[in-house]
Each structure stands twice: as structure tokens, then as C-alpha cells.
Amino acid sequence: MKKMMLAVISILVLLTATTACYAQRGAPRHGPHPHHGQRHGDWDRDIRSRVRQADDRIDMGSRRGWITRGERKRLKGELNQILRRVDRMKRDGRLDSRDRNKIHNDLDRLERNISRQMRDGDRRGPAARRR
User: Fold this and answer.
1) Average pLDDT along the chain
2) Helix intervals (H) in the chain
3) Among 60, 27, 59, 49, which Cα is nearest to 107's?
4) Both ends of the chain: CA-CA distance in Å?
5) What CA–CA distance (Å, rounded) separates 48 from 15?
């Protein structure tokens, strides 16, 4: 049991550290779709902000019992897959507009999945007992 808990904690620390590398403080995204008409430097900040927001929403949903452990694991896996894709795309030192659009589309899909999982009725913890 201790080994299992240690493994789970290690994975959570790794996931948190990975997403923290990409997250930076900033204002939440407002207005039109993020990759339309932005200056060159803004897209990176926007991607980081969206990654941070997605990670925060997954954690909040899990804490409040709206997202089950399995759903949380799958959503965090999707988020990390997006981060790995960004790393691969940035190997040449830059992201072109096609790469940015792909990343934003992936983040849009993840945000829809998070919303869907939060309202699908699967509950865990105290929220499950209140039904």
C-alpha cells in the first residue's frame, strides 16, 4: 500500500511540475478565439494561460468530487500529451501559425472534455453521497 501511495504521489508531483513549467501567471483569456489577430508574443502567453486554466479546472473538479480519479487521470494524460506536442513542435525554436492552430484546437477539445466530465453525473467522495 505504501509503495502504491508513493507511486501515486510521485506521478502527481511529476504532472504538477510538468504543467508548472508551461504555466505562468497572467490574466485569463477573454474575447475572441486566442489565435485570431494576436501579436506574435501573445500566443505563447495565451497557450501557457490556457494550459494552467485547464490544469486548475481538472484539479478543482477532482477536489469537489465532480471528476472521478479515472477521469482525472485521463484528462491529465490529455494535457500532458498536448504539452509533449508543443515541445516537439518547438524543437526548431519556433511555432508557425499552423502549429499554434493545432495546439489551440487540442486545448479546445480538452476544455470540452473537462466540461463534459464535470457534468456527466459521475461522482466521487462526499459529492457522491449527497445524491
Assistant:
1) 78
2) 2-22, 42-63, 69-89, 97-118, 126-129
3) 49
4) 30
5) 15
Residue-level pLDDT at 25: 40
Q: Residue 36 carries which DSSP code?
A: S
CA 83, 89, 93, 94 dihedral sign is negative
Task: Give CA–CA dist 111/50, Å, rounded.
Answer: 9
pTM summary value: 0.63
Which candidate, 26, 32, 71, places its Cα nearest to that of 49?
26
Q: How far is CA 62 from CA 1, 55, 66, 87, in A?
A: 22, 11, 6, 27
Cell numbers at 123, concatenated: 461522482
pLDDT tens figures, 54-101: 999 999 999 999 999 999 999 999 999 999 999 999 898 888 899 999
Cβ atoms of residues 76 and 58 within 8 Å: yes
